[in-house]
Amino acid sequence: MDVEKIISELNFKAVRSSGAGGQNVNKVSSKVVLSFDLNTSQALSEDEKVLLKTNLATRFTSDDILILNCDEDRSQLKNKEIVTKRFWELIKKGLHVSKVRKATKIPKSVIKKRIKDKKNISEIKQSRKKPNLD
Q1: What is the pLDDT of residues 89-108, one digit of tens each?
Q2: 35 neighbors 67 (Cβ within 8 angstroms)
Q3: Three-state DSSP class for 79?
């Protein structure tokens, strides 16, 4: 993964924010939309692309384009920094390969303890019954 190449492949677009804000919302395009096309990316290897497609399948469009928005701040520059940071966190999360779980046996001591506890509870319940006088 070539970081510099990925940064050059990112597309930023400034859009007017929605919601309350008065004249500032109507005049200033402070919302930033980041888009990243996975298929045309040359910074990622084919294995990395497949890994991202599987791990982040819900985040990509049908054309394998990742779109992130940010309109948290009134400053376009800060919104661009925030959305870029989110993008890198998402990519790191998508490229993370989790460890394979090893199946282990249940220890004999645990099995013995469970059976002993069951017998103990059974005896307690038996002692609660009324005596049979036949």
Answers
A1: 999 999 998 899 999 999 99
A2: yes
A3: helix
Closest CA to 33 of 18, 56, 11, 4: 11
Assessment of whether the complete model's pTM goes beyond 0.90: no
| 13-46 per-position pLDDT tens digit | 998 877 676 776 777 788 999 999 998 988 889 9
Q: Distance (Å, rounded) from C-alpha 7 to C-alpha 79? A: 16
Return the SS3 of 70. Answer: strand
Going edge to edge, which strands form the sheet with 31-37?
Answer: 11-15, 31-37, 65-70
To which H or E segment does residue 66 belong? Answer: strand 65-70
The b/e string for 5-31 (b: 16+ C-beta within 10 A; e otherwise) is ebeebbeeeeeebeeeeeeebeeeebb
- pLDDT score, position 2: 77
Q: How far apart are CA 92 and CA 88, in angstroms?
A: 6
